[in-house]
């Protein structure tokens, strides 16, 4: 009997929209389905891959740069081959694209694969309900990404009011008239939407899958629209990423074995430049009583620390990836270097320095490994201590309704 082909689902969405959170939720709620993941981190430090480690049945990680610009597609082919080999027993492969990838290029690469054990399984586009209007203005190409999706997840529904949610929902339905648009919080969608039957809209028309012809026509249309002076964003033939989202972005990686001074780090975070849209990784503070691993996420104005114990054998350190447009990478790195404790035990002597950090602490990171999914809930999860959320980060400056530990 012929072997069933393994669907390869592309999980895309702008920086910080919640792709890893959604993937983690799927992994913890897809009983019995064996998921293979290909994770494409933008920075050299593979934060996403580490966030998924231990959850997934099989994972390969493609760090440092967008997969969509791989000139040599054989690397992806090699990974697909590995995950799709009969012995691996994988039912579905999910490629988590970097937050700056061109999903269309990834789809093209999957369709071009001559691996007979796999089949393109559709594009899931994750949209950040709180940031979409702003990012769409800065990056109109996001409309096109939504337009080619088979399923749109309107994530972070808990971060906007009902009217805001409805307005974004209507925009997305207009941009993707034939794809279901599902509001969600913390990526909690039904795994069956991706892994089993394909989702269908109100009508009986099957969900559209892009064919090679569609992609070819679309690429030609875009090329024509750009005109002779426009840069060709197509990949695979010596592409330099021109015209792609990520061509406008820089990433900075920062690691430190020396603990960071909480006051200096908060001064940096509170004053972070507007273009610095995404920060992820973890921080080691030397302050007494706060020596845990502080996982850090910033997405636009949003800022959170999620403390957890260091894993057995893990050496406490700081590893951060910072991604932004129009940022001075050298200056950002210098500012971070200045956040290192200069004297041993400095933080321990001044525990009050942690107060600034604690304003942004949330005890549990929903969707993180070990955190069970709770489908259908939009509410803000339990926060630091007993008292609910520690205030939404209002970006640089003081967060609204800040509370102190
Ligand atoms: N309030 C809220 N926060 C969310 C939700 N989904 C994700 N987050 C938080 O948003 C931040 C970014 O989530 P990730 O899942 O890492 O986003 P991502 O798309 O994988 O990020 P990149 O890979 O950098 O593009 C984390 O702090 C998440 O905990 C949600 O629905 N509501």
TrEMBL record:
The lineage of its organism: Bacteria, Bacillati, Actinomycetota, Actinomycetes, Kitasatosporales. Belongs to the SIMIBI class G3E GTPase family. ZNG1 subfamily. PANTHER family: COBW DOMAIN-CONTAINING PROTEIN (PTHR13748:SF62), COBW-RELATED (PTHR13748). InterPro entries: CobW-likC_sf, CobW-like_C, CobW/HypB/UreG_nucleotide-bd, P-loop_NTPase, Zinc-reg_GTPase_activator. Residues 378-390 have a biased composition (Low complexity). It comes from the Bacteria. GO terms for molecular function: hydrolase activity; nucleotide binding. Residues 362-405 are annotated as: Disordered. It catalyses: GTP + H2O = GDP + phosphate + H(+). GO terms for cellular component: cytoplasm. This is GTP-binding protein. Residues 249-340 form the CobW C-terminal domain. Coiled coil: none annotated. Keywords: Chaperone, Hydrolase, Nucleotide-binding.
């Amino acid at each position: 009997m012929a072997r069933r082909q393994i669907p390869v689902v592309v999980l895309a969405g702008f920086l910080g929209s919640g792709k890893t959170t959604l993937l983690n939720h799927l992994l913890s709620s897809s009983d019995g389905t064996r998921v293979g993941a290909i994770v494409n981190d933008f920075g050299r430090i593979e934060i996403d891959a580490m966030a998924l480690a231990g959850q997934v049945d099989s994972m390969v990680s493609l760090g440092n740069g967008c997969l969509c610009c791989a000139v040599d597609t054989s690397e992806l082919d090699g990974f697909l081959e590995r995950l799709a080999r009969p012995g691996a027993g994988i039912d579905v492969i999910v490629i988590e694209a970097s937050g700056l990838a061109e999903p269309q290029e990834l789809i093209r690469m999957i369709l071009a694969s001559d691996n007979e054990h796999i089949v393109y399984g559709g594009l899931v586009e994750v949209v950040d309900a709180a940031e979409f209007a702003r990012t769409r203005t800065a990056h109109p190409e996001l409309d096109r990404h939504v337009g080619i999706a088979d399923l749109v997840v309107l994530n972070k529904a808990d971060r906007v009011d009902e009217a805001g949610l409805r307005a974004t929902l209507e925009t997305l339905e207009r941009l993707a008239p034939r794809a279901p648009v599902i509001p969600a919080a913390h990526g909690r969608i039904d795994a069956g939407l991706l892994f089993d039957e394909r989702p269908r809209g109100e009508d009986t028309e099957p969900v559209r899958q892009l064919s090679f012809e569609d992609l070819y026509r679309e690429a030609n249309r875009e090329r024509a629209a750009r005109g002779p002076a426009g840069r060709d964003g197509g990949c695979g033939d010596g592409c330099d990423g021109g015209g792609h989202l990520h061509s406008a972005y820089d990433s900075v990686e920062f690691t430190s074995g020396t603990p960071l001074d909480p006051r200096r780090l908060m001064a940096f975070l509170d004053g972070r430049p507007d273009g610095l849209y995404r920060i992820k990784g973890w921080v080691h503070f030397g302050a007494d009583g706060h020596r845990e691993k502080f996982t850090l996420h910033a997405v636009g104005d949003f800022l959170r620390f999620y403390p957890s114990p260091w894993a057995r054998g893990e050496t406490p350190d700081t590893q951060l990836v910072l991604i932004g447009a129009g940022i001075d990478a050298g200056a950002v790195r210098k500012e971070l270097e200045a956040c290192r404790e200069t004297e041993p035990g400095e933080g321990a002597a001044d525990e009050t320095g942690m107060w600034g950090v604690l304003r942004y602490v949330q005890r549990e990171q929903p969707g993180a490994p070990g955190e069970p999914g709770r489908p259908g809930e939009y509410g803000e999860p339990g926060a630091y201590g007993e008292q609910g959320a520690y205030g939404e980060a209002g970006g640089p400056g003081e967060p609204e309704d800040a509370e102190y530990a």
